Structures are given as C-alpha cells and as structure tokens.
DNA sequence: TGGAAAATAGCACGACCGGTCGTATTATGG
DNA sequence: CCATAATACGACCGGTCGTGCTATTTTCCA
C-alpha cells in the first residue's frame, strides 16, 4: 500500500506543475524531479503520458469538488447555495493551494483545436460542471429566488464569462480590482434575473 | 528583398500553427516544415525562438487590426462603432482565415503564471486592446448613446467576459448556440448601460 | 554579366522528450 | 522470518527541441 502514498504525492506535485505550466508543461522529467522520483519509477504508476494527464485532470476536479462544491452544499438550497458556490469558484485554485491557475480553464484554451481522449475528458468535466451550475440556478428559480422565466442556459453562459474574465484579469493582468469587478458583474446578473439585493 | 517575402510566408504559416497549438506548440521544426524551409533557414530570420514568438504575436495583432478595428472605424462614432467592433471581434480568427482560435486569448491562459518578455508583450497587447474598448465605450457614453454615468471599466470587463465565454463555448465546446448566447449577453450589457434597443 | 552580398541549406551540439528494459530494493502476506 | 511480489532505479532507445557554424546557392546591383 506504499504505492498509494507515492501516487498521491505524484498527483499532488503534478497538479502544481499543471496549474502553472498547463498540460503541455507536465513533463515526465519535470514531474519526476518535483516528486523526487526517477522518471521510470514515476512511469510505473501511469502507463502513459496520456493516462497521467487524465489522472491529473480528475485530481483537479476532485480538489475543486472539495473546495468549491462541498462548502456550497452546506448552504441553504436556492440562491444562497448558488451565491456560495460562485464565491468559492472564483479563484478557487489559489485557495486550494495551487501555485497557478485553474487547470480546466487553461485546458479549455489549450486543447480547443485538438482532438483526442484528453480533450474529450476535459469536455466531459466541463459539461458536468455546467450541468451543476444549471441545476443550482434552476433550483434558485424554482424556489422563487430568481424569476421563474429565467433563461437558465443563458444565465450559466454569462456566469462562465464572469469566471473566465476574472481568471484573466486576476491571474494574467494581475488586476487587484478583479474581485470587485467579478462581484459587480455577478450582482448585475442576479439583479437581471430578479434576485433580491444581497444582504 | 526576397527576404521580406519569405518572412511574410513564415509569419503566415506561423500564425496558423500558433492559433491551433498555442505558443508552446510553435516549434522551429514544425514551422520550417509548414513553410517548406530548412530549420536553419528559418532561424536566420528570427535570431531566437523568443523573437519569433514576439513577431508572431505582433502579426496576430496586425491581422486583428485589419479584420476587426478597421471595419469598425468606418462606422459612425459612438454606439454603432462599438456594435460593429464587437460583432467583428467575436470569432474574428476564423474570419481572418486562421484554422484555430484567437492567439491572444490562448496566450492569456497559457502564460498567466510565467514571467518574461513574451508574457510582457502579450500583456501590452491586451492592455492596448482594452484601452481601445474603453475609448469606444466612453465615446458612446459621451455621445449620449449610453448613460453618462456608465462605469466604463466595468463595461469593458464584462465585455471581455463575453468574448472569453464565446471563445470557450464556440471553439472548445463547439456549441452552435455560442453566437446567440453572446448576442443576448451583449444586448443585456447594452441595455443595462441604457442603450436604445437594437434596430 | 560578374561579383559582392544576402539568403538558405547542411550539419553538429547538448538537452530533453516519451518510453522500455533489466536489475536492485523494499514491503508485505503466509 | 522468509519468499515473493510490488516498487523504484539507472541506463538507454530513437526523436525533437533550440541554437550555433560553415557551405552553398540565390539575388541584386554596378
């Protein structure tokens, strides 16, 4: 069962590399060095580079789940839960201890014009995530926290725009106003959907 | 003066590779093969890989200028010009003949956690672009097409979110509704800023 | 048209890539 | 406590990376 421990360590170091350098920057040599393991020792845990990438993406999703989804699920259903989720979503990577940005967001722009299993996996993760956003939004509407005729798909699409714009302005432009901008945009989106003003 | 011609050819092929594979995917060997030139013949045109990357980014900006900014400048100042700009901006890369997505948007997520001249160059291009957006938005407000108290910075920030969300949903998710979603979001943004309904 | 100058090709380099193999070490179940 | 299977190691494979150096070809002007 020592294998499990080193695998955890590999995924941990791999996520650090991934969040900074992107999928194409996760190299067997680099990861082996970061995890203080020989390249071949590392390779025994993942039968190929592609398997490693898939495992890292899953680990990123798992990390996001514990840092974003789980806390949100403790809030009351409807708008409060949606609010907490968005609050935890924006900039979650830093709060989860990653040295770089959100690996999935980066993959969205890194793999957009390529084919293959890795791309498909990212697409599945992203669709899963958007389904969750839709579900929480629809709940908020069903509970009367948002206008019942709210266009849920459009709402989620706009929300993703806020996330991406926040990521770009916070991580790339390093604009200290990123948080404020995102909050204003989210408030405007909620207002447009008929939400009551925040407490 | 034959050098100029091959340089143009190199930049052209380089942009194709860049838009699909990102900055890290632009490799001397790959580009040399695409341009039917020897690796060393190519290398003579750019004294280093970094110089090549900078030249490619500039070429991308030049291409965007002719395909996005110039057509917009022919529209009447104020809101009409802003509308044309946004119309031309979303999905401009495909319309400009690139096989992939917007190189700058991809670079925003590829280089966000790295340092160096290339990152600085992308940052400069992006700031320049956002300054243009701010300028056109402020003009629209000054001309009474938008509410005078419009928060220009927030408006531009939201606009960038629409662009990024459109890029992600159109290029990565390949959602055919991307155009509609972006149009709705932009209309809502304009309405919120007090614009008259579109013709 | 000849000859200087510019442009391109050829080649070699060290580093690193993903991946394989045989061996040594280590952990664990009987 | 030992046999055995799991785990990690070092060396190495064929390729490609970016980058120099040196020929060779091509272009351009006098």
TrEMBL record, chains A, B:
Signal peptide extent: none
DNA-binding region: 27-46
MF terms (GO), sorted A to Z: DNA binding
UniProt keywords, alphabetically: DNA-binding, Transcription, Transcription regulation
UniProt xrefs under Gene3D superfamilies: Homeodomain-like, Tetracycline Repressor, domain 2
Domain of life: Bacteria
Entry-linked InterPro entries: Homeodomain-like_sf, HTH_TetR, Tet_transcr_reg_TetR-rel_C_sf, TetR_C
Pfam families with a match to the protein in the record: TetR_C_13, TetR_N
Domain HTH tetR-type stretches: 4-64
Keyword Transcription annotated: yes
PANTHER family: HTH-TYPE TRANSCRIPTIONAL REPRESSOR NEMR, TRANSCRIPTIONAL REGULATORY PROTEIN
Protein name: Transcriptional regulator, TetR family
Natural source organism: Belnapia rosea
